[in-house]
């Protein structure tokens, strides 16, 4: 059998990439899981309604009013395309809806505080660092690569959120890989448990979130593979890096200044987007990291954070009924305060970045 020439190899590679990014491939998967896409309504919608997946990304010097007008037009077109599909299998719909929700900002805004309050703050700090770096790098690459989300039609988009952003790489897929890997990496030698069980759970978690993004019409297969590939490349570098940085961020006297200067620099260096949504999300992500790390530094400075009394590995202690009640109350009260602070901080941060 003769070896393929470089030209033929490039041809096959191009065909493979085209297939993986083809919205028709997304539509095939949606149909397999019971979504009935209406061809007649899709043809009536025409190419104009497809622009929700390919916003007109113009010059970075456009006025902010023009950007807001384009955002409103995109959302209007999305709202008018809701009748292009129907759900034929409710089980798959709710399963994938829950799965994709487990990769949203609201989920991590709830899961990370819960981990700090009820599980392990030391591991939690490292999770936050990996989460922030993963999201920052992924969001920046979206505006560099500028690969649009799948066209609708032929695919159907089941969600209205985040349609103004580009699709490559999928940050849902990226974080669905990096966060479980971080938890496994930093707890496997810290606690006594069956690592292979946690590994399988992490794989299933990542797989379901990735598949749900394709099912929802938010990403192509190529977008998801791009996110997973980026995670594989990043983790060998980021895991030891955040472990090394954690001690400095927690204990060094100049840590708050370093965190603030670094965070502002990261936001300034982030690529400009034709819409403000990506920049706003990046601001919230970096701001959340900065606030949490400075808060942890302050708690350490006043003696509220101390190391464990025993050397690892530790036996996992399951809470009693009274402890479960306290965990629930602490989590509910903390989340209410957290979301209030989030809304206030988000508004102030966005106004600051627009100055």
Automatic annotation (TrEMBL):
GO process terms (BP): sphingosine metabolic process
Stretches with biased composition (Basic and acidic residues): 51-68
Membrane topology: Multi-pass membrane protein
Entry keyword set: Endoplasmic reticulum, Hydrolase, Membrane, Transmembrane, Transmembrane helix
Keyword Endoplasmic reticulum (UniProt): yes
InterPro entries in the cross-refs: PAP2/HPO, PAP2/HPO_sf
Ranges of residues in domain Phosphatidic acid phosphatase type 2/haloperoxidase: 125-239
Cellular component GO terms held in the UniProt record: endoplasmic reticulum membrane
Subcellular location: Endoplasmic reticulum membrane
Pfam family, one: PAP2
Membrane-spanning segments: 193-214, 221-242, 248-270, 282-302, 322-341
Primary subcellular site in the record, as a coarse category: endoplasmic reticulum
Region (Disordered): 41-68
Gene Ontology MF term list: sphingosine-1-phosphate phosphatase activity
Assigned protein family: Belongs to the type 2 lipid phosphate phosphatase family.
UniProt-listed PANTHER family: DIHYDROSPHINGOSINE 1-PHOSPHATE PHOSPHATASE LCB3-RELATED (PTHR14969:SF28), SPHINGOSINE-1-PHOSPHATE PHOSPHOHYDROLASE (PTHR14969)
UniProt protein name: Phosphatidic acid phosphatase type 2/haloperoxidase domain-containing protein
Organism this protein belongs to: Artemia franciscana (Brine shrimp)
């Amino acid at each position: 059998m003769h070896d393929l020439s470089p030209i033929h190899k490039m041809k096959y590679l191009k065909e493979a990439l085209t297939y993986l990014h083809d919205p028709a491939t997304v539509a095939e998967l949606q149909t397999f899981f019971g979504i009935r896409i209406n061809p007649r309504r899709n043809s009536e919608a025409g190419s104009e309604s497809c622009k929700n997946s390919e916003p007109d990304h113009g010059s970075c010097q456009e006025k902010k009013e023009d950007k807001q007008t384009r955002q409103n037009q995109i959302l209007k077109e999305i709202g008018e395309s809701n009748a292009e599909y129907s759900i034929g299998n409710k089980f798959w719909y709710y399963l994938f809806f829950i799965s994709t929700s487990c990769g949203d900002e609201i989920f991590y805004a709830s899961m990370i505080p819960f981990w700090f309050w009820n599980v392990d703050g030391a591991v939690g700090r490292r999770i936050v660092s990996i989460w922030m770096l993963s999201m920052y790098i992924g969001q920046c690459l979206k505006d560099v690569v500028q690969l649009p989300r799948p066209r609708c039609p032929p695919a159907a988009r089941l969600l209205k959120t985040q349609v103004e952003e580009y699709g490559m790489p999928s940050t849902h897929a990226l974080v669905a890989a990096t966060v479980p890997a971080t938890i496994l990496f930093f707890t496997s030698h810290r606690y006594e448990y069956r690592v292979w069980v946690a590994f399988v759970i992490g794989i299933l978690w990542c797989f379901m979130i990735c598949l749900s993004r394709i099912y929802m019409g938010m990403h192509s297969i190529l977008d998801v593979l791009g996110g997973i590939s980026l995670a594989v490349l990043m983790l060998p570098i980021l895991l030891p890096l955040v472990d090394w940085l954690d001690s400095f961020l927690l204990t060094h006297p100049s840590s708050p200044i370093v965190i603030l200067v670094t965070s502002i620099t990261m936001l300034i260096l982030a690529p400009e987007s034709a819409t403000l949504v990506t920049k706003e999300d990046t601001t919230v992500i970096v701001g959340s990291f900065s606030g949490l790390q400075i808060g942890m530094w302050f708690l350490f400075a006043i003696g509220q954070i101390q190391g464990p009394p025993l050397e690892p590995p530790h036996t996992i202690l399951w809470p009693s009924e009274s402890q479960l009640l306290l965990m629930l109350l602490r989590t509910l009260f903390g989340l209410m305060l957290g979301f209030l602070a989030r809304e206030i901080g988000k508004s102030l941060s966005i106004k600051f970045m627009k100055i």
